[in-house]
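Much of the work behind modern protein science is quiet bookkeeping, done one molecule at a time. The fold becomes a row of whole numbers, each drawn from a learned catalogue of backbone shapes. The protein below has been through that process, and both of its lines are reproduced in full.
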Amino acid sequence: MKLKQIILSILTFISILYVTLSLLGSWTQPQIQSRLELYQTNLVLQASEWEPQTEDRANWLTLRDNIIGKDAVNSALQQYQKVQESNYQNLQRLQPNQPSEFSRGELAQTIGELELRIGIMQAVLGDSQKAIATWESLISDNGNYPTSATAQVLVGLWTEPPDIGADDEDILQANLEGWFRFQGLAQLYDLQNREDVLQQLNNQQQETSENAVYKLAIVSAIPGFGLVSGIILSIILGVQWFLKREQAIINRNADVEWSVPWTAETIVQVFVLGFFLVGQLLIPLIFQLLGLRAAGDVRLQAFYILLTYMILVGGGLGVLYLSIKSFFPLPEGWFRFKLWDSWLFWGFGGYCVALPLVILTSLVNQRLWDGQGGSNPILPIALENRDPVALGIFFFTASIAAPWFEEVLFRGFLLPSLTRYFPLWGAIIASGLLFAVAHLNVSEILPLFVLGIVLGFVYTRSRNLLAPMLLHSLWNSGTLISLYILGSGAN
């Protein structure tokens, strides 16, 4: 065995070990989906307060109820209690492994904040005694002063007779958000008989609630339009395939094969050296030696993530070029970018078909992992920050740079290369699985695997990398837009 093959074998073993440990490490990490559901629940609570003052009030109320349901607070309470139960289970899982105190303390703080909100919903639903019991359980825990202090204020507002402190308003303003802050302040102002301030608060809440209705309509419309379009398109393509199987558009290029001049060693070399070694080991090591880290200001975090990714792109494409340079000129059909072609149809059509498939898979996946399994680190940062510069950088990274690089690597190189050893469908499945695993979060493997299969199918039928790039970009863009809308409605 040559020295090169020995080194490559060692690096491959290290890469496999790293990926395995990363997937195992994500096992106990929370999914972004659980947080997204709570953000959407908060928007629903905001929207539930909207009382349109127009001539067609009845129609607007019908629209509101169709979007949020007629029992929004009770549904939100059940959602919060479900997430809270999952958090308690996560806390129990963490203890035997003895994680850092920061991790345990962070989860305990999250549990306390959720308990505050659960108590407010219980109070609004008329069960003050249960709400007070919920808050009193937090008061006994002095580990988090803001949470216990806020719980003490809420207990005072809902006891008989009320116990109002001089700093209650400041504490509620500082430690509650959105609909929960409104409910706490409204109770305080009502007890203080501050009618003018209460009216001003109600007016502000009406404006916020109306905006929440519109935001929920947009968030629902993005996947809703895709779902309907995807189902219709799938039916049309299915009927066409049934009636004219050989001429069906989904069979286009199905028999066109790639000529693969390299072996599995080149495939492994590109991914081990260009993707895992550069992206997961070399870049973090260099940044650590230079003292660079993603911390502090959100713009710095965004620039850090973009810089990291662009170095990965440069390193990955550099290794790809050097690995296949000796095979130039490449056989026909490799790395095709055809601007004047049907890539718009394949990209947008693939997006519409992928939506119902991935959403259905995600629902099953959520039950399998019960809110655990990790998520892309960009998503929670994008969800919780409103800085336009940072969001613009995130958008460029996720919706332009990532689709371009990953499609070149996974669909442009990997999928055709695998056809040397697998039939076409086997290559699509294998490349889709590696695409999902490469994201290093165990909970994302199943939905990203389905998305990877659709991306592979679109590329093999269009034979144009612009098509899966468009699909990938639309997918990431839709996710970021939903995150922005949900995050903007949190407060």
